[in-house]
């Protein structure tokens, strides 16, 4: 408890490190853990149904959704004062591993479970299995730090060559052709990728493979396969590197790009598309549910031709047992997931730099949560 009190004092001073674990208690604290609106009793807290939830809820995974989780936990624990939620944003791969080893009640992942991961989950989901619940959407922004350049347009082919170390300087003819009015400097490109297994990397490489197959010869995945470049831990680590490194470029969720310039992506549409919530929503709205049974995994379109549809998007899933959840954590798990899938929970997302799930998808998510056992 001494450590928790110190953490709360640190939070009150705004000193929560973005790479640290989230450990917010509901002892009347007004800490938000990075979210906004730090009132001790948020306006919509009274609408949250705590049920008989109590105790500690352990979760980990996607760093992409960390800022959303921060805001949700601040609201939820203001209402449900008997629950402590600990979320470690250590990457989708680590989150799934912890879940399938029975260490957490749920995991956050920017990629749906693979068949072998579903099989592994059956060992901890007694009589059931892990399922994917799409909860958070948004654009993967490509952030850049090029002195003298405020607006930058790139396409999938150019991005693939940059991140495969085939285009190495900012005044390369391929970049200049897409940016005829920009004063591109004679400066080495510093391309950064994730060092940890990441669903963001999985979605980014799926985009490169789908939109530029001739220039991206690697199979998509959570682990980075291309040669060269530099690496950093988590989305926050990549954003930090772009902020402080001249010539840098990297990929991370839009919520991490508040003070970073982002690339406009050239698609088949007439005009380049900006990384915005509205443009990501346009793309996510075209996703199809491809999961079976209670699983709600989505298939995204990485090569949209519609005007204003941003092609680089991801969906973060909360992964949970459909059956066989631990009795001690099930009430808190259902209560928290019910809240974040609710109208109020989803309404927080846009303010935090994310896109809420389309109504037809989130309705199915709510129904599935109510049946967890």
From TrEMBL:
Residues 1-23 form the signal peptide. GO terms for biological process: phosphate ion transmembrane transport. Residues 53-343 form the PBP domain. Coiled coil: none annotated. Transmembrane segments: none annotated. GO terms for molecular function: phosphate ion binding. This is Phosphate-binding protein.
